[in-house]
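Anyone opening a protein record will find just a pair of labelled lines. With that in mind, the following record should read easily:
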Amino acid sequence: KPENLIAVAIQQKGLQREKVPDICVLDPDGDIVRYLIQCGEAKKAVNWPCYHSDMHLFHRGGIDFGIIGCAVGAPYAVLLAEQLSVLGCELIISITSAGLLDASIRTPCFMLIEQAIRDEGTSYHYLPRSESATLGTALKSRLDRLFQDGNMIGGLSWTTDAPFRETQSRIDSMRKRGVITVEMESSALYSFAKARQKDVICFAHITNQMGTADDDFNKGDENGSEDALKLIVAVAKLVKAV
């Protein structure tokens, strides 16, 4: 159990058991964490007991956050989500960079992942194959205001754990199913959330066409970190307001 791993880690590292912030962010690219550290806004959480990562703490919009960088891939994201939940996190926000399948959309942009195709292995340890990986209905209703200014899109993502195996036939098949983007974490995180009855919200920061265009992986100023932080604060306020 995650409780057992945490207990041993605290003992071995000589840490104090400490509650994490109510809202924590998974930052697979690590750009947001690096930006916060560079700006002097983030400090390392000295009692974060995970063996495999560092947590940093920051304060924005009157809200305290925890953030973990470089949480790449479904198994690692779920490992962290399990431990965050044990230590008192009430909402996990994941913002992962993603590849674009719908060429009509201009990048970079943010997409609220409303449902994810489960093309990875981790989610099947949480939910039967017959169940879909979706954003919780209650959370989704709280986020409607994100779409009012036209800068946010929502839709279907494809989660894969083989990032260099998006073959052309597979891409064509996903496009026919209405998939907008491809990434590596959301289906597992949503399956974890459903099985454990936890609150998780996943966003895709769509930055590229899988390395096929000249301006791929351009996330904008500061690697899109300020825009991502504004989104994080807006989401936190919408969820906390209810």
In short: The longest strand covers residues 109-119. Strands lie at 23-27, 43-44, 55-60, 63-69, 91-100, 109-119, 133-134, 152-160, 179-183, 199-208. The two ends are 31 Å apart (CA to CA). The helical segments are 2-13, 31-38, 74-86, 137-142, 168-176, 186-196, 225-240.
